Amino acid sequence: MKEWLDKYLKELNLTDSMNQTDGFCRLGYTEEEWRSIDVFVSLAEDMGLKIRRDEAGNAIARWETEDSSPAVAVGSHVDTVKGGGGYDGVAGVLCGLAAVKSLKDEGFQPAAPIEVICFASEESARFGVSTIGSKAMSGLLNKKEVEYVSDENGITIRQAIEDMGLSWDAIDAAERPESDLKSFIELHIEQRTRVEDAGADFGAVTAVACPIRLKVIINGQMGHTGTTPMGKRKDAFVAAAPLVTFISEKALALSASSSVPIVATASTFELKPNAMNVIPGTVELGIDIRSVDDSLKKEMEKLIREKCDQLSESFDVKIEVKTLVHNPSIQLDEAVMRKLQHSGESLGYKALVLESGAGHDVMNMVAKWPSGLLFIPCKNGLSHHPEEFAALEDLEMGTKIIAQYLKMETSR
């Protein structure tokens, strides 16, 4: 199985070697993503699966049975961020197909259909909008809200989808009825090291942390760097500096004192006028706050707003805090999580029950179907990076756990 996984890991990544100095770049709704999906389709057809491409570009590979009951589904995506790794997304698609292969090889006959789904455009790297394909499938895509969102080249989501031969007007038809699926699971690299740190082999995920995102606008006063006395300045950058440290320190303290972690990041920074001889007059700071505990996120937001009030007074600047995103975190299906945990443990692997700090397609699927998320380790927790890596042994473990789960869910 490891040789098979290695071969098709490379084929799905459109490469002969996973060692890519600059990483991979398959943005959503591009020819590169479509070529990778074509590999998925070809491989699934060779395995005897029936293929359907929906109106959002998702590829659905189905193991048909005589029983027309709802299907048990597994899936992920093959698009990447710019300069990303070849395991984020691809591992889930690959192991889903590998699990079906292993069941077929042993002569297993499912009593219900099994599907492997390759979702389109999961990453937000191109448009700043994530999980477009799974949103469409689960009925969560807000067409009016995203239709004219554009990439850095001015190409809108609508245009990009139509450039791939799809119809934007028909994309609503990608939504599937609840009766189509019994459950959905996704395998993903962990993107952290909690599984390894706990001495476990895999993770069974309880929830997905969704963010509060803030924009902090600090308005001071521009002035000449050579003639404005230090005591008469309203330097927006100087006022912003303590906030960056505060965010990190408070998130660390809150996480240490809570039963679940919280992370907060000052992740974007824009300085105006950004000239060597001008005192910074305006700073815009983007802040991303995540935890599966929504009360912790709100507490962190409250502390940031209070700190901004203090900084405004201390440095004689005006500070405005805008809420850009405030999404409640998503609880995954506990029964599915327990089944994934049991599937792995029954094979002799040790499980860690944990939450996900990153979003995945599963967070949309759970809105309509019982859904779960399985983590396998990745080296040093590194992801969205050219050196992202998951061992073939862990991909094989993930394949075995998925196969065990599918067998349990579709046995007569």
Describe this structure in words.
This protein is of the alpha/beta class and 412 residues long. It has two domains: 2-208 and 330-410, Zn peptidases (Aminopeptidase, 3-Layer(aba) Sandwich); 210-326, Alpha-Beta Plaits (2-Layer Sandwich). It contains twelve helices and 13 strands. The protein has helices spanning 2-12, 31-46, 90-105, 132-138, 143-146, 157-163, 194-197, 236-256, 294-315, 334-346, 362-365, 392-410; strands at 50-53, 59-63, 71-77, 114-119, 181-189, 202-208, 210-219, 263-272, 282-291, 318-326, 330-331, 351-356, 371-376. Strands 1, 2, 3, 4, 5, 6, 11, 12 and 13 form a nine-stranded mixed sheet that branches. α3 crosses α12 (392-410). It is elongated and about 80 Å long.
Question: What order do the SSEs take from the amino end to the carboxyl end, as H and E?
Answer: HHEEEHEHHHEHEEHEEHEEHEHEH
Could you report the average pLDDT, rounded to the nearest whole number? Answer: 96
Spatial gap, N to C terminus: 26 Å
Structural category: alpha/beta
The CATH superfamily of the largest domain turns out to be Zn peptidases
Number of extended strands: 13
Percentage of residues in helical conformation:
25-40%
Number of folding domains? 2
Shape, please?
elongated
Oligomer: single chain
Uncertain residue ranges: none
What gyration radius follows from the Cα positions, in whole Å? 23 Å
How does the major sheet shape up?
9 strands, mixed
Q: Number of helical runs?
A: 12
Strand content: 15-25%
Per CATH, what is the topology of the largest domain?
Aminopeptidase
Based on the coordinates given, report the CATH architecture of the largest domain.
Answer: 3-Layer(aba) Sandwich
